[in-house]
Specification:
Number of helices: 12
CATH superfamily of the largest domain: Type I PLP-dependent aspartate aminotransferase-like (Major domain)
CATH architecture of the largest domain: 3-Layer(aba) Sandwich
Order of helices and strands: EHHEHEHEHEHEEEHHEEHEHHEH
Number of strands: 12
Bound molecules: pyridoxal-5'-phosphate
Low-confidence stretches: 326-330
Organism: Chryseobacterium formosus
Helix content: 25-40%
Protein name: cysteine desulfurase
CATH topology of the largest domain: Aspartate Aminotransferase, domain 2
Catalytic activity: (sulfur carrier)-H + L-cysteine = (sulfur carrier)-SH + L-alanine
Cofactor: pyridoxal 5'-phosphate
Oligomer: single chain
Strand content: 5-15%
EC number: 2.8.1.7
CATH class of the largest domain: Alpha Beta
């Protein structure tokens, strides 16, 4: 069976060039970057070159890039260290954040007594920035705002520049989980006054187990993993040199091809929307995922007009991989918080959310096969209520 992968928001396949760069590094650059001899120094140079490459992409200084094991670690570090080392007493966030952010915030609330305020999004998944301003002006407590750049389940993109400016005007720190947008969009942090951001290489055809945190130098954030002086003492532990080489190669490929990749995925996304809308009567699109603006070109979130908790499995049996939620919550029996925010109770009870996510490797034949399979499965369901009001 020819398998089709449409779950690229969960992870992406490694590029051949990335695999080659990593193998070369593992063979040639096995030294410990902390060693002072030439083996160590060669590995150290490789790391610093990638750090410079990342810094150039974001228009920041290399000292502001700290390599970590993943997006989860970066987000944990930023949120927990803001509380433990920067005196943050209050966190403003939304219920739509990735679990690694929401659970870190909850941990700080439970263990450190941090006050937490959530801005409830509207039915499109939009965050009301007037509400953010109102909350910021309503307290003198040292505050961290944590709002993701793009949502991994419905694809909504927020205006991080505007949010960063509001935070600056109100003396709050601003963290944005940028895991779904890093290397997919141009990001200029000399123009966007964000304090902290995160990245995970496996979201753009790099390896798992490597990412980085952007930590604005002026913030004074410290690390939470203690030990040796690696990563300017912000993240102890011998560096994942091959992973860093892979991240660097994946970033290089993304940046060199960004225009072509963006165009291709926008086309694929529109094609998917058009075909699904034409072939599945009553289907809806969650959040802003059917829009070209303010939505990731990698993600379409559907609501099928019938209840079928087995849809993911049935598509998988036909060789098609999609997600019924995000990878991190799909094993759970509870509906995801994001879906609870953007769907009505009626839609939750009578519909089935499905996330389809693309990469530059996705082609229209794969989308055709997905839509045909979805049509075939949908035939078995009586579509009773296609007029459910979408909220
Ligand atoms: N943040 C977002 C928005 C994500 O989509 C993910 C991964 O799904 C993460 C954080 C966690 O990244 P990692 O898998 O590198 O821990």
């Amino acid at each position: 069976m020819n398998k089709i992968y449409l779950d690229n928001a969960a992870t992406t396949p490694l590029s051949e060039e990335v695999i080659d760069a990593m193998i070369d590094t593992m063979k040639m650059n096995f030294g410990n970057p902390s060693s002072t001899h030439s083996f160590g120094q060669e590995a150290k140079i490789l790391i610093e070159n990638v750090r410079r490459q990342v810094a150039d992409y974001l228009h920041v200084t290399p000292a502001e890039i700290i390599f970590t094991s993943c997006g989860t670690e970066s987000n944990n570090m930023i949120i927990k260290s803001s509380v433990e080392h920067l005196g943050v007493e209050r966190i403003i966030s939304s219920p739509m954040e990735h679990k690694c952010v929401s659970e870190s915030i909850l941990d700080m609330k439970n263990r450190k007594g941090v006050e937490v305020a959530y801005i409830r999004p509207n039915e499109k998944g939009d965050i009301n920035l007037n509400k953010l301003e109102e909350l910021l002006k309503g307290s003198d407590k040292k505050t961290l705002v944590s709002l993701m750049h793009a949502n991994n389940e419905i694809g909504n993109i927020v205006d991080i520049k505007k949010i960063a400016q509001i935070c600056k005007e109100n003396n709050a720190l601003f963290h944005s989980d940028t895991v779904q947008t890093m290397a997919h969009m141009n990001l200029d942090f000399s123009d966007i006054p964000v304090d902290f951001a995160s990245c995970s290489a496996h979201k753009f055809h790099g390896p798992k187990g490597i990412g980085f945190a952007f930590i604005r130098k002026s913030s004074g954030l410290k690390g939470i993993i203690t030990g040796g002086p690696q990563e300017r003492s912000l993240r102890a532990g011998t560096e994942n040199v091959a992973g860093i080489a892979g991240l660097g190669k994946a970033l290089e490929l993304s940046l060199n091809n960004m225009e072509a990749y963006t165009q291709h995925m926008q086309d694929i996304k529109q094609y998917t929307i058009d075909r699904v809308a034409a072939e599945i009567p009553g289907v809806k699109f969650n959040g802003r995922s059917s829009e070209a603006e303010n939505s990731l070109y990698t993600v379409v979130s559907l609501l099928l007009p019938y209840k079928n908790p087995l849809i993911g499995l049935q598509l998988d049996m036909k060789g098609i991989a999609v997600s019924q939620g995000s990878a991190c919550s799909s094993g759970a029996s509870k509906p995801s918080m994001v879906m609870m925010m953007v769907l009505s109770e009626d839609e939750m009870d009578n519909g089935t959310p499905l996330r389809v996510s693309f990469s530059h490797k996705t082609n229209k034949n794969e989308i055709d096969a997905f839509v045909d399979a979805l049509k075939e499965i949908s035939k078995d369901f009586v579509i009773e209520n296609t007029n459910v009001e979408h909220r």
